[in-house]
Amino acid sequence: MNVRSQISMVFHLDKCIGCHTCSIACKNIWTDRKGTEYMWWNNVETKPGTGFPTKWEDQEKYRGGWELKEGNLRLKSTSKAKTVTNIFHNPSMPSMDDYYEPWTYKYDELFNAPEGPDQPTARPISMVTGEYINVEAGPNWDDDLGGSPVYAESDPNLKGLTEDQRQQLFAIERLVFFYFPRICNHCLNPSCVAACPSGALYKRGEDGIVLIDQKRCRGWRACVAACPYKKTFYNWSTGKSEKCVLCYPRLETGQAPACFHSCVGRIRYLGVLLYDADRIEEVAKLRDEQLIDGHRSLVLNPHDPAVIAAARANGIHDSVIESAQASPVYKFVKEWKLALPPHIEFRTMPMLYYVPPMSPVMANRGDDTVSSVSGEFFHDIEDSRVPLQFMANLFGAGHQGKVVYALKKQKAVRTYRRAKTVGDIPMETAEKMLREADCSIEQAEAVYNLTSLCTFEDRFVIPPMHREEAIEMMRDPAEHKTAVGFGFMEPPKRGL
After folding, report:
1. 106 burial class (0-12, 13-18, 19+ CB within 10 angstroms)?
2. What is the pLDDT at residue 376?
3. What is the pTM of this model?
């Protein structure tokens, strides 16, 4: 048992209000430099919808992640034989059109315009070329419109839905969407790391954060094509790749990442998970329907004496083990089984999990009352406007079982709390639903407390980190120390 520690995350989608505060916080700190204008390390998408870059989930187009061939894991986007040829033409590489051409406005035309009969305007200009452009796309171009057939019909997660389900989903009286915030998943089996020819990408041993060594990066961009979540970006000014660093300078001082700290809906949870690194390849080779259980089996019980002993033997500090024991992520992922990884079928073993949202239901109106189709106070999961198959494609590798389990447990907790606080639902009914959802009263109270009444300290359990290691990271390269991950380089000097 090779015990490692990993900073992991949970996003509770039932609480996300789609305000994009997280995206702006990240943008202001990390990607306000030349060459990063189009980068959004954190972005919030509307589902159903095509996302950013457009249709990033379609691996027939982008060839990201891993595939299982003859019992072996292989990168979809590249191989040793393709590495050199892909430099000159990589058909799986997203283009500027798949993202968007970043723009600003000619404000001087607005503020310094001479007096005239017409209202002056500030025309948009490209932040890449400086030329006037006709804006046709943006990072959240389909924001709040993902439920409409204009954008939603191109969502790859609609695969497997019947024509009736599609028509019902797009019908105006059933129109529905939910928000899907995304950052780098800091995977256990990262395809971006495996694809890099220069070895610039690496996974930090102490916390599992995936970083890019800016000194070693040679701009091959193999990481961009290999990441199935498209969370590695190419800086066209510096000639280097960049990605989310999980705000590790903040973590090293006990602070939550910027996007987590600024979250208005308080949907984000961060904590430590202990996992068995020796079993990663074994789990990544499982069949699609086995991947979620296999992924969960990698996560070890931090209260188990054998795990604690193995962790100590591997150099993991007691403070990290104690943080893992108090981790909110462990509760959501392992104890309650409410949180699920996105697109586990990509086989990168993502360490960002989502609690699937409870979607609205069709209702009937009569006799001045409104009731759900099923007649129950809280509708059946199967009556949700978002078809279960859509959720299964997003969070269950196409299989509904784990998604249904998570949604039914959430419904049971809601019913129990309604029965306890309002009393218009018999407690016997609520307790029966809890039993059917594999949930005890104690667990229901714990889920409710961590979801609704949690403090900042409950949501973010950040282990103490060694400052001497962080300082070593930040040393001046002139002192013959390698700067990695942090401290992005200036553009290359011309003529050299």
Report:
1. middle
2. 61
3. 0.90
